[in-house]
């Protein structure tokens, strides 16, 4: 039996395929529908949709709802933990190219996450902000402002 988990504004509602098929819904146009459910009529308008992500923003009788739909496959993947993400731990930050250290944006002992700006490296007349590729704590900064670095040179040690 096919089951769906529909999340409406963070409230989960399990729905069977039979229940979904038994909803009386008529398309008025591409984005507007008239829904009859349990002897009550609803005016439904699709405001935004992302079919790949299986999400919608809808208006039901003028009230706006964020809707996410998970099918049997999505539920099985979630149950198996295949969507779980793990944080990447970074041990070393190396210069991606030769250049000059323009600014250092972190200090020893500072905790960083993925995407945290670490330093500014000038290379080929361009300033490049070097971002952390994972998480960690800055253990040692092996360079200082105005130092010239070579490609692959250690610039920050993490723990």
Concise synopsis of the structure shown:
This protein has 159 residues and is mainly β. The chain has helices spanning 17-21, 72-80; strands at 3-8, 11-16, 24-27, 32-37, 40-50, 55-60, 63-70, 92-94, 99-104, 111-112, 117-123, 126-131, 136-141, 148-149, 154-158.
Q: In percent, how helical is the residue content?
A: under 10%
Mean pLDDT: 88
Based on DSSP secondary structure assignment, what is the total number of beta strands?
Answer: 15
Shape: elongated
Residue share in β-strands:
over 45%
H/E element sequence: EEHEEEEEHEEEEEEEE
Query: Spatial order of the strands in the main sheet?
Result: 2-1-7-6-5-4-3
Radius of gyration from the CA trace?
26 Å
What structural class do helix, strand and pairing data support?
mainly beta
Uncertain spans: none
How far do the termini sit from each other?
Answer: 49 Å
- Major sheet: size, sense and barrel closure? 7 strands, antiparallel
Helical segment tally?
A: 2
Task: Please provide a written account of the structure.
It is a single chain. By secondary structure, the protein is mainly beta. The protein contains two helices and 15 strands. It has a seven-stranded antiparallel sheet. It has a four-stranded antiparallel sheet with strand order 8-15-13-10, with no helix packed on it. A hairpin with a 4-residue loop joins strand 3 and strand 4. The longest helix is centred in the middle third of the chain and has 9 residues. It is elongated. The model has no long low-confidence stretch (mean pLDDT 88).
